[in-house]
Amino acid sequence: MERGGKTVLTFGEPDERELALAAGSLAATVRNRIGKLAVERVDGEFVLGTALGDALRDAGFAPTPSGIRLRA
Quick one: three-class SS letters along 4-63? Predict the structure, then answer.
């Protein structure tokens, strides 16, 4: 994740379980420490419709016109 959010890069080819764990951890960090985070792109693609985007939505992120967002 770049500083300030917005863009996320994955490494390797994570499976659904790994993505769910990463998304849950990120959501917990946002709720407990950061307060809000918006993600627009994953690996250069618009976040909605990606496997990580789906995992983030399952972890509590909400879709927006520019991507997905979580507010504590």
Answer: CCEEECCCCCCCHHHHHHHHHHHHHHHHHHHCEEEEEEECCEECCCCHHHHHHHHCCCEE
